Amino acid sequence: MIQVAIDRAENDVLLIRLAGQWELRHGLASTDAVESELNQKRRPSRIAFDTRELGRWDTSILVFLAAVVDACRERGVVLDSTGLPAGLHNLLGLAEAVREPAGARKELRESGFLERIGDHSLGLIAAVEETLSFIGNMSVACVQFVRMRARYRASDLFLLIQRCGVEALPIVTLISFLVGVILAFISAVQLRQFGAQLYVADLVGVAMTREMGALMSAILMAGRTGAAFAAELGTMKVTQELDAFTTAGFSIVEYLVLPRVLALVLMMPLLCLYADFVGVLGGAVIGVGMLDLSWTTYVQETARAVRLGDTAGGLFKSAVYGGLIATAGCWRGLQSGSSASDVGRSATSAVVTSMIVVVAACGVFAFLFYELGL
Amino acid sequence: MATADGATPYISVRDLTMAYGSHVLMRDMTFSVNQGDVFVIMGASGSGKSTLLRHLIGLNQPAHGSVYYRAENFTSADPSQRERILRNVGILFQGGALWSAMTLSENVGLLLEEYTDLTPAQIRQVAALKLALVGLRGFEDYYPSEISGGMQKRAGLARAMALDPDILFFDEPSAGLDPISARRLDELILQLRDSLGITAVVVSHDLASIFAIGTNSVYLDVSSQAITASGPPAELLARTEDSILRSFLTRGGNP
Question: How much is the pTM?
Fold first, then answer.
């Protein structure tokens, strides 16, 4: 065990006897006794050590000694470390060798209420500026693209198209089938009471093509692809890959963001059309299995109810959602800080931002379509 | 902390063959690291120095052969045995590998929190001391992203030393450091060896550092996929007949 004894045989010298096993698992020794001795009126002018009975030691003794050294320095007491084992003497020297640089220590203080409001407002202004500048860059890149002058690698674009198109099919299948089934089931229970179960087909068809296909695939892609874009670009920022692109003369927005937005804008309508189809299929399974409609009836009823305009509107919306999701994902990725948790945070905020803009866009579309009588 | 007592092999490597899939990097390596050594693993870029280090600390599994810590077979040890062996091992990764979401104090303190019974205040005290040992007094509350690469490396060393390990592994300690910082790190390694009796295994191709601190070494040769030389670096330079090794040890001069 740790043993500390204080001996003030000569009035002037405080002798600290260190003995026993000093190991971290036994805990740390307190320096209170030494400090109280140093705080006495007739304080010693010198501290010496006796370590003849010291056994094994590790960091714990060093922590004790460093605290004694600090206490001595504060009070101008001389510390005589010759009584310490050579290794300990050296380590103590090492720990004390580098002075704390002036102003290095961080001040931890509470900021006032007004200060926090101010900080927040300034942050908000900076965020708006950043957003505007990103939108500006995006617009320039789009103009460049339309003029066929945008610089990006076609192979990147095809890879991205594959990643956010074909590879998303399984999850889109699962979710939109489920949505179709749920819609059909809920409406079947209600409509059967009026003997109007045939209209389940109308309901599922119209709901899927007008809204649900686009919305469900948008939510899926926000979680699946928007977050991936943010994580990818965020990591590229951490590893300075973005800096390498910038200094090589590439526009990040043109080279990295544009192909991602393009890929998702191209793929979302296809995914949406596919989701519409699978959703109707899910409805048909309920219609045939539970309501005893025949496949032919169900399909005919769906074809009668769904207008081309509904489907086209849904596809148009999904293209817009795709653009918004990809833009939000990339933007959040580019904003990422430089640590692992910052990348995680930017992926999270990519999904949240995507959802918000998709829902906002959904509302705008509902209003417009209603006003335009579509 | 144990005292250095001459030539007890701390780590013995027997017939170790390293491979990625079917691509063999090095075959049939046999060597031992003695207690109190500063053991240097030398070799050209791509020779598998860092991979060998990963094998020694169990991050990679050998294709053939085994690694012994004292008398225990580390390669075939079960997870709890491995954990016990690794408790006495500290590792300084090439870029420091500090946990970016934690302050320096928390980086060092996490291990203490997990493996000792110290109170939070005591942990902070120990962490501050470890950081002071590597010259980072006053930087306890900084995040890794707020300090320079050299400081990150030193903080990584403080973390590696958190639990007072018997053996420290260094992956390219001088990579990315200016000559003076690199030399200070070398001196720190020697001081730790002298005062705490720590054994060090250093992966390096920095000649100045190899000659300054190495007490024993192995040279991994790319073309023959084997260890072609071993011994104290200065001695190797004096007596080697191997033109590749001579060229390596003299930066391509003195053929």
Answer: 0.77
